[in-house]
Amino acid sequence: MTTLKQLGKSIEFIPKDELTIDICMKAVRNEGLALQKVPCHMRTIEICTQAVQKQGLALRYVPYRMRTPNICAIALHQNLNAVSDVPSSILIEEPCWSIAQTYPEIIKYIPTTMKSMKFYMQAVKHHGSNIYQVPVSMRTYEMYLTAVKNSSYILQEIPLDIQNNEIYLESVKNNGSALQYIPVERQTYEICMTAVDTMGDALQYVAIHLRVLDICLRAVKSCLASVKYIPAEILTNDFYEKAISIRWDIIDAIPLHMITSKICIDSVINNGGSLQFIPFDFITLEICFIAVRNNGDAIQFVPIGMKTDELCIEAIKNDGRAILYTPPHIITLDTCIMAVKSHPFVIEHIPLEFRTVEVCNIAVRLCGSCLKYVPYDLLTVELCQIAIDNNKHAIEFIDPYLFNVSKVGSVNIRMVL
User: Fold this and answer.
1) What are the C-alpha distances in Å from 150 to residues 34, 95, 118, 195?
2) C-beta separation of 213 from 220 below 8 A
3) Which residues of 262-271 are buried (b: 16+ CB within 10 A; e: fewer)?
4) Quick one: CA torsion of 316, 321, 326, 332, rounded to 10 degrees?
5) pLDDT exceeds cutoff 60 at 361
6) 89 alpha carbon, distance to own chain's centre
7) pLDDT over 70 for what percent of the chain?
C-alpha cells in the first residue's frame, strides 16, 4: 500500500483478483492518469470524477457514456487541454458552455455546424477576444461593438471603414489607452475626454490640438503623472489653481516660481497632508491651522517654531496621533486625555507621568489591547476585567504572578492573596 500511495500507476502491478474499488480510488487520488490502468468494469462515476479532479487529461480514459457535462467541466477546470476529449454535444451544454465562452482556445473544438451567428455573439459578449474565432465573413458591426465593450484592444483589428464614434467611445470607456488605436484625425473632444476620464495617462495619445484645459484637468484628476503630457502653454497659474482644487498632491509638481499663497491655501484645504510639499517661505500660521483642522496628523509637517499651544491642541482634537509630534512642554494631562479619546493606542507614546488612572481607563475601555501600555502599579482587577471584556486577547498582557487568571471564555480574574 505504501507503493500505491506513492505511485498511482503501480496499480498495474497488482494482481487483478486483488484489485478493489478502494484500491483503485486511492490510486487515482494520487495520480489521475492511473485511471487508464483501472479495469473498465471498475471505472465508476466516483472513481472517474476523482481521477479528472486530480488530472483533467484523465478524461480520455473515462468511458464515453460517463462523460457528462459535470465531469467534463471538472476536467476542463483542471486542464483546458482536456477539451479534445469532451464530446462536441457536451461542450455546448452547461457548465461546459460557460467554460468554452471564457476561453477562446476551446471554441475551435466546437463543430462548425453548431456555430451559429447567435453562438458567436454570445461568445463575444462573454469575452471580446472570442471575435478572433469568428470567421471574418460572419463578423458584424454589432459583434465588433460588443467586442470592444470588454476588450478595447480589439479596436485595432476592426476594419477602418467600420470604425465610427460609437465604437471609439465604447473602446475608451472600457480602457482609455485604446485611444492610441484611434487615428488623430478621427479623435473628438468627447472621445478624448472619455479616454482621460477612464485613464488619465491616455493624455499622451490625445491629439495635440485637443489637449485643451478641460481635458488636461480631467487627466490630472485621474492620474498625476499625466501632467508631463500637458503642453507648456496650458501649464499656467490658472491651470495650477484649478488643478489644486481637484488634486492636492499636484503641488509637488508645480514649479517653485509658479506657487502662490492661494495655491498653498487651496492645497491644505483639500488635504492637510499637502503641507509637507509647501515651500517653507509660504508656510504661515494660518496655513498650518487650516492644515491641522483638515488633518490633525499634518502637525508633523509644521515647522517647530510654529507649533504653538493652540495649534497643537487643535491638531490633537482632530487626530489623537498628533501628540506624537507635539513638543514635550505643550503636553499636559488634558491633551493626553484628548489624544487617547481619539486614538487609544497613542497611550504607548504618552509620557509615564501622564499615564494616570483616568488616561489608562479611557484607553482600555476603547481598546482592550491597550492594557499592554498600562504602568504595572496601575493594574487592578477591575481594569484587567474591562480589558478582557473588550478584547479577550488582552489576557496575554496580564502578569500571571500578579493575578490568577482562569480559562478564557467566561474569563474571571481575582487577585492572588
Assistant:
1) 41, 22, 18, 15
2) no
3) ebbbbbbbbb
4) 60
5) yes
6) 39
7) 90
Amino acid identity at 115: K
C-alpha cell at 410: 467566561
Report the pLDDT averaged over residues 146-170.
Answer: 92
Q: Which grid coordinates belong to 387?
A: 480589558
Give residue 287's identity as a one-letter amino acid code.
I
Nearest 5 degrees, angle CA 192-CA 150-CA 170?
A: 30
Q: Cite the beta strand spans of 167-244 per DSSP E.
A: none
Helix, strand or coil, per DSSP, at residue 229: helix
Is the pLDDT at 399 greater than 90, yes or no? no
Best-predicted range by mean pLDDT (133-142, 175-184, 389-398): 175-184
Cell match 481635458: residue?
215
CA angle in degrees (0–180, nearest 5) for 307-313-315: 80
**Going by DSSP bridges, is the β-strand pair 413-415/403-405 parallel, antiparallel, or unpaired?**
antiparallel
User: How many CA atoms does the CB half-sphere of 72 hold within 13 Å?
Assistant: 26
The distance of Cα 10 from the centroid of its chain, to the nearest Å, equals 46
CB 337 within 8 A of CB 362: yes
Q: Which three cell numbers stand for residue 225?
A: 503623472
